[in-house]
Write a structure and sequence with these properties.
three-stranded antiparallel sheet; elongated; 51% helix; 11 helices; alpha+beta
């Protein structure tokens, strides 16, 4: 009992610290906070630094590749992410980018994302919305993995009420589920409203690599590079740099006076 109270108190204190430091975290340059001691610290700071995106209602998410660029030991990242997932602090999502991309979102942010979508549906008086409550209470609470099989999905939803085909269609149309191409009886759990951002993610990656490839030595100092604006991505340069460094497309070199970012040789 005492341990539970202590844990809650620590979480509340952590939230207060996080709220108070988010503005400071946001203003720090990439050069000032390129690496972190552990995965949770990295997640919290990158959450605070998630870019403000116009016209798209999306809660902050962090790419797994960004964590690999920020915490030196990849095994530590994988181990700590798995622990945070099991403790229901975060959820991990397979992104529909055509590459092996995974996003990490704090569970509270994911629930806010769902609530925002449901409110919009309620305003439009569209569909049988009770399935969203069943999904939240019975699927999200018990299914921690990034994918789910059709029969298991129906079984969990049926704890809330009688499941119809229209309910599954509603969850797919809402962007909470996507069918797996290899096996249509399997679904990926997904982030609503993320589609347009994924398009920008792919375009921003190409734009940044193209920018560096056009330079004589395919490199640039980090500080001026971070200040550049990408034309084809709603995500900022810092977001893309962390991603491409973590995925190995870019690498960094420390000089006596600065940090240099260069394209990795194939």
């Amino acid at each position: 009992m005492e341990e539970g109270k202590k844990r809650r108190r620590e979480e509340e204190e952590g939230e207060e610290i996080e709220a108070g430091s988010s503005d400071a975290d946001r203003s720090l340059s990439l050069e000032q906070n390129l690496s972190f001691s552990d995965t949770l610290v990295a997640l919290r700071i990158m959450r605070a630094q998630f870019p403000q995106i116009d016209k798209v209602a999306i809660q902050p998410f962090i790419l797994q590749s960004q964590l690999y660029s920020s915490v030196k030991d990849r095994t530590q990242v994988d181990r700590e992410l798995e622990s945070l997932r099991r403790e229901k602090v975060v959820r991990i999502f397979k992104l529909n980018t055509g590459q092996d991309d995974h996003a990490v979102m704090f569970l509270n942010d994911y629930l806010k994302q769902i609530e925002h979508f449901v409110k919009r549906m309620e305003e439009r008086k569209t569909g049988d919305l009770e399935v969203f409550k069943w999904f939240k209470v019975h699927v999200i609470e018990s299914k921690l993995e990034p994918s789910i099989e059709h029969q298991e999905l129906c079984s969990l939803l049926s704890l809330g009420g009688r499941v119809k085909d229209e309910h599954i269609s509603l969850l797919i149309n809402a962007g909470l589920l996507t069918r797996q191409l290899i096996d249509p009886s399997m679904y990926w759990l997904a982030i609503p409203n993320v589609g347009s951002i994924l398009k920008g993610l792919s375009q921003g990656r190409k734009e940044l690599l193209s920018l560096l490839n056009r330079r004589r030595y395919k490199e640039m100092m980090l500080a001026p590079l971070e200040k550049k604006h990408l034309r084809f991505s709603p995500l900022d340069m810092r977001f893309h740099l962390r991603d491409l460094i973590g995925s190995g497309h870019l690498k960094i070199a420390h000089t006596p006076t600065s940090i240099v970012v260069r394209v990795s040789k194939d």
